[in-house]
Design goal:
single chain, alpha+beta, six-stranded mixed beta sheet, five-stranded antiparallel beta sheet, 9 helices, 19 strands
Length: about 280
């Protein structure tokens, strides 16, 4: 990942760009409501993309209203039966399915996908050869619900090839900061046992709490799903809860800041060099 002042950018995805914001001057809220925090954050975010990356966002971003579930929506299938909801944040409209979901996939390279997180993993999925791509929100419930493997299988049905799919797990809460009670820890032990994953390698107990390595578990699940994790997986080491930069927290974190927390925005878009020339 390449570091900029206000976001990180993933390289190595062929014609696609994956962006994850830092805390910076953005205070996105976990909603699709029209409020000043969301509007002003989008205006500043778009300005920073233009200045630092010579990128401009389109008029519409394809969004999702997350529910910590395992629903994945194929945008082309959805469009055949339903209409989208739209919310304007200044110039940019958020276009999102009426059905709450935690992942969207598409084969339309004109669509730009977006997601908000605040400790959960933003997971970017890209088959650059067949131009099938997706963005997934996965917290601990998403890991247990196998949402990322489900998204990958849906991409393969849509024309992607498993050997071509590159996966990026963006900044999220680390094992040192993610602690749960025994009931959730027990669910993970059962899950890892079912999937032949050594639970002792991905969790430890400290006091009365259990610490769990969500991204590490997901990596093993991806390996078993057939993803070439040595060559086609990029896993960020940044912790949204703990990492500091320039004397302040680097990312928004709900576990750390509770109701005062903003959200980090993730963007996945196809790079159209011809279209972007006018912004350079």
């Amino acid at each position: 990942m390449k570091e900029y002042q206000n976001f990180v950018v993933v390289e190595g995805l062929g014609n696609f760009t994956a962006i994850h914001s830092k805390k910076a001057d953005y205070m996105f809220r976990n909603s699709v409501n029209v409020d000043m925090d969301n509007i002003s954050s989008m205006i500043v975010f778009e300005h920073d993309l233009r200045i630092d990356l010579s990128l401009s966002l389109p008029d519409e971003l394809y969004w999702m209203e997350c529910a910590h579930g395992d629903c994945i929506i194929d945008l082309e299938e959805y469009e055949e039966e339903f209409h989208y909801l739209k919310v304007s944040l200044g110039r940019i409209k958020l276009v999102y399915p009426r059905i709450k979901c935690d992942g969207i996939i598409t084969s339309d390279k004109n669509k730009v996908l977006a997601l908000l997180t605040a400790d959960c993993m933003p997971v970017y999925l890209v088959d650059d050869i067949n131009k099938v791509f997706g963005l997934v929100h996965s917290g601990w419930k998403g890991v247990l619900g196998t949402i990322v493997p489900k998204a990958i299988r849906k991409m393969v049905k849509k024309g992607a090839k498993l050997e071509n799919i590159k996966v990026v797990i963006g900044p999220s809460i680390s094992i040192n900061a993610f602690e749960v009670d025994s009931d959730v820890a027990h669910q993970f032990v059962l899950y890892m046992n079912r999937n032949l994953i050594n639970a002792a390698s991905f969790m430890f107990k400290k006091g009365e709490k259990y610490h769990i390595n969500l991204s590490g578990i997901l990596k093993e699940v991806l390996r078993k799903e057939g993803i070439n994790v040595e060559n086609n997986l990029l896993l960020s080491n940044d912790c949204t809860y703990l990492n500091m930069e320039r004397g302040q927290y680097k990312y928004h974190s709900y576990r750390r800041d509770k109701a005062d927390s903003g959200r980090n925005i993730s963007i996945l878009m196809y790079k159209d060099d011809e279209k972007q020339k006018c912004f350079k």
